[in-house]
From TrEMBL, chain A:
Keywords: Membrane, Transmembrane, Transmembrane helix. This is ABC transporter permease. Pfam families: ABC2_membrane_2, DUF3526. The chain crosses the membrane at residues 132-151, 177-200, 206-229, 241-266, 451-474. The keyword Manganese does not apply. InterPro entries: DUF3526.
TrEMBL record, chain B:
It comes from Blastomonas aquatica. InterPro entries: DUF3526 (IPR021913). Keywords: Membrane, Transmembrane, Transmembrane helix. This is ABC transporter permease. The keyword Transmembrane applies. The keyword Membrane applies. It holds the Pfam family DUF3526. The chain crosses the membrane at residues 129-151, 172-199, 205-227, 234-255.
């Protein structure tokens, strides 16, 4: 073991003397620091702006004057997706989804205004965030610093000298891995500080931040082991470098894109318009509120009249139009829910493809673990959309309920012809103040932790594989000597 | 000719080089295939929308009793068809919707809808020919060319080879040309097949092919300049990988950060809210105020502008349009912000040739940010035609007839649109 430390120490001293290595490390640390600071500033601004916008929206709703409740159904409100607790570390899909949903009656709108559509299209690869630095750039730095570790000794013939001093292949590779591991820890440092800072400010996120940090540590450990193994196997350092850069390009650049490209065409989503048209067709089949003789609404009316023992809707103890609006909204919302659930399943299957592609690319696994942990993944966005829809339905039904109970049926029927009746259908502005506000909480830390398990297992598999390859490289080195 | 055959044979005998070229060709073919599949999906999506439209219109015609009602329920499709090069450069088509249905209501509340895409698929970027050309092909070129001279020197053959008569022309030039040609073939053959399948116009096909060649030429020059300096193969490889890494990953990401920070884009959510406040506020404002403002824009409708004491769609559509005008400045600023960022990105493209070539590719394919903004302008122009068509009926008080609904102006994707009609 002492020999391992000695070899690691010698390798580190060599790196310290190498200008290239120093420049590489300093560049990465600088990028990492820039990423951490800008991302923290940007996400803090975004979080503040969205929270402020939500407050203003709620205030505007409550400040509306006396109105017919149905006007409020159309006035609607907005739900803004809050910024995830660890989004500064890994913004995930935040900029690729809309962030604001307009909530109104009869319609289900999409989330609009996302940063990606407002960005310059300068080689869309990744935003400079701490997560991007660790996933993409750090492995490359490790390759540059580690590819020659063993191969260089072999080329110079110094492997023999080491062996002559009693160094086993295991201790040589172990020492090299140890030295590279120190570099990896250094590369992790700024991002870990960013993560730690977020955890300090939100203590309940501390546990999950630790798991994310461990996931990245494991990811970089797999790279360290793999790099040393390749350096130990390759005949020349040139061969080691080329093989490692090819592996990096495949794992970090190619597989994630290819998997996403294939998932998108192999299991396509219906477009929004597809869904709109399908819902419109279903509505015409189930119950068309525009059609006076529609069987569903005729049955609905008969049932209500029977229930209250009256013969005319005018004799109902409430405003029939409000009840009708509630029934209409119930039907459309059920369809919105059904179609959204179907699209959610497709999206989950698509993301499932990416999960499986983690077998080919640990970069995908660590990205997934990181996004899930930071609550900036698809699941969190879907949860937000579903929460917004549930809130929309509740709000609209409350307003329709007000139309049924607080607006006189006679006035409501006459309002399009009689301006005075129209005036009377405007109910008190105080009602708007009683409406609940939209609130969305990201999935709990324990739920996210559970969702991280598959990706963490895949990462574990990769670490085991890397150990295996390193062991194989050691036996090979032992057998063939230097 | 013998020289070429010799170099091809040597390239073919080197298992690693051959594998790199074959893999590049496979990736390029996969990129083209995925691109074609994406374009086919987009086209099918547009077809389905247009095929579904008659049933929608028939249903609306079944219950509509006046032009205002018809305009309220009269959603019309607008779409941005994929160009004949979109398969090679998918660009922003995954984040900017290609189809939308609009009606005569305030457009600012309709224009920014998003497609129902899976954001996790957009996260990594597109897998298309641009990606293969800009990111992957340079790495293969580096692998094939970084040790043209240093490799021979390390094998102890450099002096011998260089002293052959005409070595420069007959050996090095041919060797380099054969390797570059291998990379070009791996990219251009799949592209040509894709272009034939997509029915790409020949001049556009040649232009795009030229951009692919330009990208390879740029990298070849960079690689040969580094390789000539006389350092060892391993130093060359490390230097070139660092250059690639800086030019395609780090500097663009940093430039993007700088551009987004220096060109602010107004908050879209605020724009939407402002629009809603004005539109819904109209219900509580004196109706004359709305009509006066509207008639100032449309004096030709003054004669028929008298309102009954109760609700009328004339007034309703008047305030819808005024709601768009109310945020016109913000909307313009929003657009200008995005266009401004794109302009800076183009400027950065001159300093970062790979980024510049990628932008030229998406611009040629009509899949860049500019194309996205132009589509929005076409929608604006069409929306103007659509609502003005209904104004004529609303303000003339002509008796309603369902043919009014059937004769609405239709969107034409080829129509340039009078940009800035609003």
């Amino acid at each position: 073991m002492r020999l391992v430390w000695t070899i690691a120490g010698a390798e580190l001293r060599l790196m310290l003397r190498s200008r290239l290595a120093l420049v590489g490390v300093v560049t990465l640390l600088l990028l990492s620091a820039i990423a951490a600071v800008t991302s923290a500033v940007q996400m803090a601004e975004t979080a503040q702006a969205r929270a402020q916008a939500q407050i203003e929206t709620d205030e505007q709703f409550k400040a509306q004057p006396n109105r017919h409740p149905h006007r409020m159904v159309h006035y609607g409100t907005y739900a803004l997706r809050p910024v995830g607790p660890l989004a500064a570390f890994d913004p995930g899909v935040d900029s690729f989804t809309g962030t604001v949903v307009f909530l109104e009656g009869h319609r289900q709108n999409s989330a609009t205004f996302g940063a990606a559509r407002e960005s310059s299209d300068l080689l869309r690869f990744g935003q400079l965030t701490p997560a991007f630095v660790l996933q993409t750039l750090a492995p490359l730095l490790l390759i540059f610093l580690g590819f020659a570790g063993v191969a260089r000794e072999r080329e110079r013939g110094s492997l023999r000298a080491l062996a002559a001093h009693g160094a086993s292949a295991r201790s040589i590779l172990g020492g090299k891995a140890m030295a590279l591991g120190v570099v990896a820890l250094l590369a992790l440092a700024p991002a870990l500080v960013a993560l730690g800072w977020a955890a300090v400010r939100q203590p309940h996120e501390g546990g999950i931040a630790l798991v994310i940090a461990l996931a990245y540590a494991g990811y970089l450990a797999a790279w360290v082991l793999g790099i040393v193994a390749v350096s130990g196997i390759a005949r020349t350092s040139q061969g080691a470098l080329i093989a490692l850069i090819a592996a990096w390009a495949l794992i970090v650049v190619l597989v994630p894109r290819a998997a996403a490209g294939i998932a998108g065409v192999a299991d396509p989503l219906p477009s929004r318009v597809d869904t709109e048209l399908a819902i419109a067709a279903d509505l015409r089949r189930i119950g068309d509120s525009h059609n006076a003789n529609d069987p569903h609404f005729a049955a609905f009316k008969t049932k209500l009249l029977k229930q209250y023992g009256v013969t005319r809707t005018e004799d109902l103890p409430f405003n029939y139009r409000g009840a009708l609006a509630q029934e209409g909204e119930r039907i459309t919302s059920q369809l919105f829910k059904d179609y959204a659930a179907r699209a959610d399943v497709i999206r989950q299957r698509q993301s499932g493809w990416l999960g499986w592609a983690g077998v080919l690319s640990p970069a995908l696994s660590v990205r997934d673990a990181s996004m899930v942990g930071a609550a900036t993944d698809l699941t969190t966005h879907t949860a937000f959309m579903n929460a917004a829809e549930a809130y929309r339905f509740d709000l609209v039904q409350r307003l329709n309920g007000l139309q049924a109970t607080a607006v006189s049926g006679t006035d409501d029927a006459a309002r399009s012809k009689d301006p005075l009746a129209d005036q009377r259908t405007r109910i008190s502005a105080d009602f708007w103040k009683t409406m609940p506000e939209f609130e969305f909480n990201a999935p709990s830390a324990s739920a996210r932790m559970t969702a991280m398990v598959p990706s963490l297992l895949l990462l574990g598999l990769w670490i085991a594989l890397a150990f295996g390859v390193l062991g194989w490289a050691a036996r090979r080195l032992e057998r063939h000597g230097a | 000719m013998n020289n070429v055959i010799r170099e091809m044979w040597m390239l073919g005998r080197n298992r690693a080089s051959l594998a790199a070229l074959v893999l590049l060709a496979v990736f390029a073919a996969a990129g083209v295939a995925i691109g074609l599949a994406n374009v086919a999906r987009d086209s099918a999506m547009i077809e389905r929308m247009l095929a579904g439209q008659p049933a929608e219109e028939q249903a609306v015609a079944g219950f509509v009793e006046d032009a205002g009602y018809g305009a309220y329920y009269g959603f019309q499709p607008v779409w941005d068809p994929p160009s004949d090069l979109a398969f090679a450069a998918l660009g922003n088509r995954d984040i900017a919707p290609a189809i939308l249905r609009v009606r005569s209501l305030s457009l600012e509340a309709q224009l920014y809808e998003n497609e129902s895409a899976n954001p996790e698929l957009s996260l990594a970027g597109r897998f298309d020919l641009v990606f293969i050309t800009i990111y992957i092909a340079p790495l293969v070129l580096i692998a094939l060319l970084h040790d043209v001279w240093s490799g021979e020197r390390e094998a102890g053959r450099l002096f011998m080879l260089s002293s052959l008569p005409g070595a420069r022309r007959r050996l090095w030039a041919v060797r380099i040309a054969v390797r570059i040609a291998g990379v070009l073939a791996a990219l251009l053959i799949p592209f040509a097949v894709g272009a034939i399948l997509a029915g790409t116009a020949l001049p556009r096909m040649l232009a795009f092919g030229g951009l692919i060649m330009l990208a390879c030429l740029f990298w070849s020059v960079v690689i040969l300049l580094v390789a000539r300096r006389g350092a060892s193969s391993v130093v060359n490889a490390a230097t070139l990988a660092s250059i690639w890494f800086a030019l395609t990953l780090v500097v663009p990401a940093a430039a993007n950060l700088a551009i987004n920070a220096s060109v602010p884009v107004p908050d879209g959510a605020e724009l939407a809210r402002e629009n809603r406040e004005f539109v819904h506020g109209a219900w509580d404002r004196p109706r004359e105020q709305t009509m006066d403002a509207f008639l100032a824009l449309y004096p030709q409708h003054a004669a028929g502008s008298a309102l009954p004491p109760t609700f009328h769609y004339k007034w309703y559509f008047a305030f819808q349009h005024l709601g768009d005008l109310h945020v016109a400045e913000q909307s313009q600023a929003y657009r200008d912000g995005i266009a401004g960022r794109a302009a800076y990105a183009r400027a950065a493209g001159w300093l970062l040739p790979p980024a510049g070539i990628a932008q030229a590719m998406t611009a040629l394919a009509g899949t860049d940010v500019t194309a996205q903004l132009e589509f929005q302008q076409r929608i604006r122009a069409y929306h103007t035609r659509l609502r003005e068509y209904y104004y004529d009926y609303l303000f003339s008080e002509r008796p309603f007839d369902v043919s009014i609904l059937a004769n609405v102006p239709r969107f034409d994707p080829a129509d340039d649109g009078d940009a800035g009609a609003d």
